[in-house]
Amino acid sequence: MASNRNGFQRGSAKFDRPLKSRPRPSSPSPGSALRRPNAAARNGDAVPGRVRVAVRLRPRNAEEMMADADFADCVELQPELKRLKLRRNNWDSDTYEFDEVLTEFASQKRVYEVVAKPVVESVLDGYNGTVMAYGQTGTGKTFTLGRLGEVDASDRGIMVRSMEDIFADLSPDTDSVTVSYLQLYMETLQDLLNPANDNIPIVEDPRSGDVSMPGATLVEITDQHSFLELLRVGEANRIAANTKLNTESSRSHAMLMVHIKRSVLENEDMSSQNGDASHLTKPSKPLVRKSKLVVVDLAGSERVHKSGSEGHMLEEAKSINLSLSSLGKCINALAENNAHVPFRDSKLTRMLRDSFGGTARTSLIVTIGPSPRHRGETSSTILFGQRAMKVENMLKIKEEFDYKSLSRKLEIQLDKLIAENERQQKAFEDEVEKVNFEAQCRIAEVERNFADALEKERLKCQMEYMELVKELEQKLVLNQERHDCNSFVADNEEGPASSSTDDVAEVKMLLETERNRRKAAEEEVEHLKSQLGKHTQAEAGGDVEIIKLRNLLEDEANQKKRLEEEIILLRSQLLQLNFEADQMRRCLDGSSGSTYSAMDSSTTQVRHSQFKDVANGQKSSVATLFEQVGLQKILSLLESDDANVRIHAVKVVANLAAEEANQKRIVEAGGLTSLLMLLRRYEDETVRRVAAGAIANLAMNEANQELIMAEGGITLLSMTASDAEDPQTLRMVAGAIANLCGNGRY
Ligand SMILES: Nc1ncnc2c1ncn2[C@@H]1O[C@H](COP(=O)(O)OP(=O)(O)OP(=O)(O)O)[C@@H](O)[C@H]1O
């Protein structure tokens, strides 16, 4: 098996699974957040713990096999009796008892379990613990403590196995592990994880006795792999000097320090304090428990003269011996309960002050070789172990109030409480809203029910009242009949009056009162009704009167219009009659054949003169008509809806047109256009005939001739002629056309 000079095997790392955590009722299983302290920790009491010492015998090495081949081992072990016999000579030996006696065949696992495991468990419970190997150079101290077991996992030493157990038991969420690795070489304390740091102070707390090295590098480790890496770095930096006795000898004291912080809870039971059975408890106090495991691999304890050291090596050996002898003196003093223990004599004893006579649980393994040539060293080692067994420590847990953890916990609690409060607030508001809504519904329902009940009650009362009135009326009638009957009997028999007379009177009075009330109410209703009726009538009457007046006004207007038209008509008729009468008179006088028969082309001048005469004869009446009616009004009658009116109007216009003085005015007032319109409308023949006559009269004026033709007069006259049935019409049209053609001019 290949190994380096420090006894560490080379090769790839291969480890067993971590050892299963020991059952501890007071501790939660690995991974649980917090653990509770045991009774001793709660009380803060120290418990006695003697330094436990085991002896381990190294098997003969190759050199011893040869050199001591003819000699028996200097020790004889009785492991079952935990005894060791150190031979003085062939026939005599000294017997020593130890806490454990480990033969050369003891496995590394067994050595760990009997020497270190109880200390590791103590450390996990919160106590400080020390595992230390003491022995002559080359007897297996480093083998026992520092083997990494990279080639053969069963070779794993106490350091590796301890850390496996620690990791198996810690909770990564709440616990932490930090490691520092130091060596004390010639009274210089050096950091093996940072060799440049070689002046590390040793600080002792005078109150608690705790020892600390504040300048040492502290590396937090979270798994076994990183721990092994750290061990390798430390071992590589450890100084080892060859000696004549052992080529792989460690010339320094090495110290691995594992600091553990664990969170614990402590409940203070109020019921126990108050002496009652209340279940009230104070919230758990978060505590942090700090403990440390110190594994010390002391330098070889060989004697200077025997090691054959010289120069620096000699100084080195002297330094080692000095520190080890100081340790021995301290242990002696402690074993003998001396008042003074010379811890301050060396740095080694200052460093280990807590482990011997302090508060740590300490386990010492003393390693010995079998060779009789080193009997003296072996004896010295055994005696060192024997004295150490007498040292009593007082184990004490160190707990601190975990402010950080408490603050974290309180923050979480506060967040939870706030969230819970908000939730409850919301629930409360929802509940209030719900209750409110339900109350509103209930109130509405009650109101509805109340209104219904009230209505029912009212109807019921009304019915009862009606029935009561009815009943009273019946009673009244009945009583009246009885009274009449009684009166009749009384009158006849002169007997006493009926016994119910008073009742009847009372009922009567009641009935009378009710009647009066009803009558008053009915009168009131009637009064109101009549008022309403009057009011309505007044309103209606007013409207009717207005409408009537309007109608009357309209009638009056229509009447007036009709009368006006009638007057015009009558006047025109009168005019016409005069005109015809004149014509008739002239005919009778024999001055002419006929009025219109003479109106041919050859007689235009004659007719014209006749017309002139007629006109002269009628001058006064036409002038009167003009004055009384007005030309415009007469012309407007040409468009009257009444055919009769139109005929008379056109006749009047024709007559007016016969007067030369009127012709211009008629044309200017639009009379010509109206006359042509009558032709165009295919009026009845009489109208068209008279209109043609009127146009003929207007055509006598040269100024009008062009105008008549320009407005299509010739065409309209032609059309009238073509439709004419009465020869008089043809005559009128012919006269008009003749005038238009300017007969007067030719
Ligand atoms: N129990 C054992 N079984 C087998 N070999 C062992 C045993 N103990 C020690 N050895 C071997 O003995 C040699 C010396 O051991 P180790 O280096 O551990 O001694 P040491 O006490 O630490 O010496 P030093 O004080 O000089 O460092 C090593 O080769 C080691 O493998």
Characterization of the model:
ARM repeats lie at residues 629-671, 670-713. The chain has helices spanning 39-43, 62-67, 108-125, 141-146, 158-169, 224-237, 270-274, 304-307, 311-335, 347-351, 375-388, 403-493, 501-589, 604-629, 631-636, 643-658, 660-668, 671-680, 685-698, 702-710, 713-723, 727-740; strands at residues 47-50, 52-57, 75-78, 83-87, 93-97, 100-102, 129-135, 176-185, 188-191, 203-204, 211-212, 219-220, 253-266, 285-297, 361-368, 392-395, 399-401. 55% of the residues lie in helices and 13% in strands. The radius of gyration is 77 Å and the shape is elongated. Strand 4 (83-87) and strand 5 form a beta hairpin. Among the domains are: 39-269 and 279-401, Kinesin, CATH 3.40.850.10; 587-745, Alpha Horseshoe (Leucine-rich Repeat Variant), CATH 1.25.10.10. Residues 7, 58-59, 61, 135, 137-143, 246, 248-250, 299-300, 367 line the site of adenosine-5'-triphosphate (ATP).
**Main beta-sheet annotation:** 10 strands, mixed
Strand content: 5-15%
Helical stretch tally:
22
CATH fold description of the domain at 39-269 and 279-401: Kinesin
Q: What top-tier CATH class of the domain at 39-269 and 279-401 fits best?
A: Alpha Beta
Bound compounds: adenosine-5'-triphosphate
Distance between the termini: 174 Å
| CATH fourth-tier homologous superfamily of the domain at 39-269 and 279-401 | Kinesin motor domain
Q: Any idea what the shape is?
A: elongated
Salient structural properties:
746 residues, alpha+beta, Kinesin, Leucine-rich Repeat Variant, 10-stranded mixed β-sheet, 3-stranded antiparallel β-sheet, 17 strands, elongated, disordered N terminus, binds adenosine-5'-triphosphate
